[in-house]
């Protein structure tokens, strides 16, 4: 009996077996991705019925092909014009689905089903999004005689964390991060830290999402030795932005 192909990341054979949630296929919003599904042995699948679906959708069909023809009647409109199979690869049993210009809403579990084989193959997709944080001077903290710095970054998915560092990479103690989730499911995070005279004049706000390996950071240089001089020098601040991949 034919079985599905196993590789180092995704390995399934038999009935209705799922990918581990700890091993999703990770991609950045706007990129293209191929959802893998390979028959073994590599039989010709050009005339086979092929169904790709996403169980949490209604209708749930992402892509369907029958007797060599693509079916669009019950296809979910969110995927129209963004999904395709390679005919040349179908000849070798590769029924992997290419999904173009992925969106955050594309995240989730996908099902590859070949009725003739009575086999299911599940792939978990995680789409990440990020943006550059902005840092600015928020004012003087009279209680500590320090200066407050604000950091804000919008358009993240999944929810990220915010950390502050000095020029030597030491973590700074900041207030709790404020998190807002918009109607587009994207997160906006804000954080405030108070820096004092004992600190160096170089500071970094880093926003990161460990699951998707996304990191963005902004460096701010305060060009005075005495924090009180900030207000005398009219908040002259040099900001340098860096993107890490």
From TrEMBL:
SUPFAM superfamilies: Immunoglobulin
Record GO terms (molecular function): signaling receptor binding
One example of a Gene Ontology biological process annotation: T cell receptor signaling pathway
Compartment annotation: Membrane
Principal localisation: membrane
Keywords: Disulfide bond, Glycoprotein, Immunoglobulin domain, Membrane, Signal, Transmembrane, Transmembrane helix
Annotated Pfam families: C2-set_3, V-set
Record domain Ig-like: where: 30-124, 133-221
Presence of keyword Glycoprotein: yes
InterPro entries: BTN3A2-like_Ig-C, Ig-like_dom, Ig-like_dom_sf, Ig-like_fold, Ig_sub, Ig_V-set, IgSF_BTN/MOG
Keyword RNA-binding among UniProt keywords: no
A single cellular component GO annotation: external side of plasma membrane
Family: Belongs to the SKINT family.
Protein name per UniProt: Ig-like domain-containing protein
Organism: Neolamprologus brichardi (Fairy cichlid)
């Amino acid at each position: 009996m034919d079985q599905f192909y196993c590789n180092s990341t995704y390995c399934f054979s038999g009935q209705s077996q799922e990918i581990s949630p700890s091993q999703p296929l990770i991609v950045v919003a706007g990129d293209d991705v191929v959802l893998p599904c390979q028959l073994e042995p590599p039989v010709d699948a050009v005339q086979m019925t092929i169904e790709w679906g996403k169980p949490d959708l209604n209708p749930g069909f992402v892509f369907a092909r029958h007797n060599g023809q693509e079916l669009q009647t019950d296809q979910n409109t969110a995927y129209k014009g963004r999904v395709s199979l390679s005919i040349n690869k179908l000849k070798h049993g590769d029924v992997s689905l290419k999904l173009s210009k992925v969106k955050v809403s594309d995240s989730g579990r996908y099902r590859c089903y070949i009725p003739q084989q009575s086999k299911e193959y599940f792939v978990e997709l995680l789409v990440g999004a990020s943006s550059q944080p902005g840092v600015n001077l928020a004012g003087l903290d009279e209680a500590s005689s320090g200066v407050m710095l604000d950091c804000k970054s919008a358009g993240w998915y999944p929810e990220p964390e915010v950390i502050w560092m000095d020029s030597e990479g030491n973590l700074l103690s900041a207030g709790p991060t404020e998190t807002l989730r918009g109607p587009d499911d994207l997160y906006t995070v804000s954080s405030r830290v108070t820096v004092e005279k004992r600190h160096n004049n170089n500071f970094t706000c880093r926003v990161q999402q460990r699951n998707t390996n996304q990191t963005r950071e902004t460096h701010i240089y305060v060009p005075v030795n005495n924090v009180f001089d900030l207000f005398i020098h009219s908040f002259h601040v040099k900001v340098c932005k860096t993107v890490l991949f």
